Amino acid sequence: MQRRLSAPQIDFDAIRGELGVSEDYGDAALEEAANARDRYAEQREDHRDLPLVTIDPPGSMDLDQAVHIATDGDGFVVDYAIADVAALIEPEGALDAESRRRGTTVYFPDGSVPLHPRVLSEGSGSLLPGVARPAVLWTIHVGADGQIGDVAVRRALVRSVARLDYSGVTADAAAGRAHPSITALPAFGALRQRIALSRGAIELDLPDQEVVHDADGWSLQIAPHTPADMWNAQVSLLAGMCAGTLMADAGVGLLRTLPPAEPGAVRALRDTARAVGVDWPDEQAPGEFLAALPADAPSTLALMSHAGSLMRGAGYLALGGGETPAPSAMVHAAIGGIYAHVTAPLRRLGDRFATEACLAITAGEPVPDWVTRAFPTLPKILRSADSLGASADRLSIDLAEATVLAGRVGEVFDAVVLAEADAKKPARIFIDDPAVIAGCSGNPASATRIRVQLTAADPVRRTVGFAAVG
């Protein structure tokens, strides 16, 4: 059995400095956040009697979403409350400008740097349990066939009754003791996932590396994927698809887009499946093929890794600034429909503006000028924010890998080959203990289990290297 590797200390401050990320919001923005008041208090429907619950990682304080799902005959009624951040931020004020400069909450293993000051993101704006909070409440009817029926969205006053986490929700559902507010969540999630696959959605189930701190120091682990992650994701996707459709039909808003996979990428994935001995029926769509693969097979890891080529070109599309884009340009191919981000406004800049468009559209009112002025500027900001978040994640993992493995050069590990070497890059391997994805010299075959030797681990350069043994 592989002995657990850890490092007593890892300092991520240098990465924050390198990326220019800090909690210096400026005095004016901090003052606005500290004195935030609900600008729409008089317009809210009172839904504090709705027993909503939040589902987030343990310890989370920036709670964007709270949910209640009830059965409705053979279908469901989903009530989904989203933190009403726009109600707490003065349009085009100091805090608004600072949030546009940042674009996103940036996550590091030792903590996050929030999009908004913590007094708002973890206080007055967060859907913490037991306190009344301003929210945007979506009520969405889903039929027994999984299709979307009536949709309502309005400003409301809500109060969450419990803060839950993914592993707890999964365990409670398996034991038949799910919280009454989400007893129907597993059935809803499974139904909507089946519908997603039938419309061509693609989900990549690759291992997520996680840098974890405990009593022994820092270690690299696999972030668990629980059924509750999928169930909860289906709620968010449902709201995002409703929001995207509303804005696309109205011709104003902000969509999240992804072009269809290039035919060559699909052919290459089929070639990989054939090479590793996995049957892929001609009539089966890529998403259905990937979803049916056995979770623990080396071939599955390799195929999921290769399938990333199907999901290139994600972007943001602002609507309402001129010529109407073609319907195909508005689609998110991996979701299999029109989609928008609206469910995480405490952590993502664009959600606040897209939500305001949805509220105005459903009320039959003009979208506010401060929102329409922002839309053309947001795609560039959000692309930059996505890149920043990805860099923070990758650099942190690189540092953790090199630090945890420092002093272990020469040791041998079990690995799965995710991709063979090509003219530009070495082979890529996955080690599950410690959780490392790295390059490997030699030319091992894809989707095989091999032994690899650690040849280098440099925390200063944040690099590691492996070589195939034998």
From TrEMBL:
Residues 44-364 form the RNB domain. It holds the Pfam family RNase_II_C_S1. One of its GO terms (molecular function) is 3'-5'-RNA exonuclease activity. InterPro entries: NA-bd_OB-fold, RNase_II/R, RNase_II_C_S1, RNR_Ribonuclease. One of its GO terms (biological process) is mRNA catabolic process. GO terms for cellular component: P-body. This is Ribonuclease II. The lineage of its organism: Bacteria, Bacillati, Actinomycetota, Actinomycetes, Mycobacteriales.
